[in-house]
Structure prediction request, 253 residues.
Amino acid sequence: MGKGKWQGEYLAEVRFPGHAERLKICRAFVATIGRLYELDETTTGDLVLAVDEACQNVVRHSYNGGSDAEIHVMVRREKGVLLFFVRDFGPKVDPGKVRPRQSDTLRPGGLGTYIISEVMDSVSFIKQGKGNLLRMVKRVGENGA
Amino acid sequence: MKHTIEESAHGVVVLFSGDIDLESSPKARKVLLKCVKEHKGVVVNLADVPYMDSSGVATLVEGFQAARKKKSHFALAAVSPAALRVLQLSRLDKVFAIRDSVDEAWQG
Prediction:
């Protein structure tokens, strides 16, 4: 493990304005990472979905439905894991209030965080001077990273 | 995302084509809820949906709940692998009636 908020080797990063129609950029970026590291189709699809959901949370909540403020998605790797960081510049999120909905609960909201927790091996907010920084860790095996 | 609506003896089939995501789901929601309101049954054909996220799932949940409230038929047909995966990850794949074809979806 590296020291500080960053860990592992820096692989790539994409930055885009915080609007719903820009999330396709993020999805294409994560799909490319999956192909580059020869992850299987399901894992790649799951990662695309989870990172997309994290960015959606930014657009919906931190950016009140959309903002020209940027979202940064960074990917790093460490032995056997990929690390995805989603950075926004909105109001501070209270991590205690970001909870996945109960499994099998039939209601339209609260699904995104649940999906992220299902796909990723760990999810945490990292203390940040301005805005928020979400770290998501996915074990992909030695071949994948 | 585009959509087409085909009338049948049982109600309507809503065929979505394209991603159902944060950008397009408000439109999908509007279409679906209108169909549920105006017809006795709705089958949602998801064969041409290469990507769906939680907002798409939420849209389907709203359609399902609206149909249940008026005791009308609501089912999903020919669900693409990506759409099925997000339903599985949401643990809602057992909640919806998911059938391989539109014909089967009308049968319950």
